[in-house]
Amino acid sequence: MAANQKPADGTPAFVMLHRAGIEFTPHSYVHDPRADSFGMEAARALGVEPGRVFKTLMAVVDGELCVGVVPVMGSLDLKALADALGGKRSQMADAAQAQRATGYVIGGISPIGQKKLHRTVIDKSAAQWSTVFVSGGRRGLEAEVRPDDLVRITRAVVARIAR
Asked: pTM here?
C-alpha cells in the first residue's frame, strides 16, 4: 500500500505503518478457527512460502516482556533471544500477559503497533526475502512489508533466533 493511501483496515499495525510512511501490502483470508497453526494457515491461505511468513511471539527476558519474530515453520530459540538482547534467562510469556501487553489477540499479535514498544528481535532469515509477511493485527490479516522497514518500525535487533 502506498504511503499516501489510507489502510482499509484500521488496525494499530496498519495505522502505524501508514503514519510512518512505510509501503506495505495488506492481505486477508478467512481464518479457520480449527487451524492448529495460525502462521502456517496464513502461508497456505495466501499461497506464500512459509519461510516468508513470520510469527510474533512474546517472551520474558530477565523479567522484561520482549518480542521474537521468527518464520512460522520454526520455533523461537529462547536462549538465542536472551543472548540477542544481552539477557541471561528467558521464557515464553503466558497468553493473557501477551494479549494485555500488546492489545492484540493470540494468533493476531503483530510486532507493529503494540500498546507500547517492546524490545524486539527479528530472525536474520527475514533478510533473504524482498518482502515478508507479519500479522496485520488480527487473525486472517497479514501485512507484507520489506524486512528493513520491519526492522526500522519495530526498532528491532536482527539475530539468529529461530530453530
From this structure: 0.91
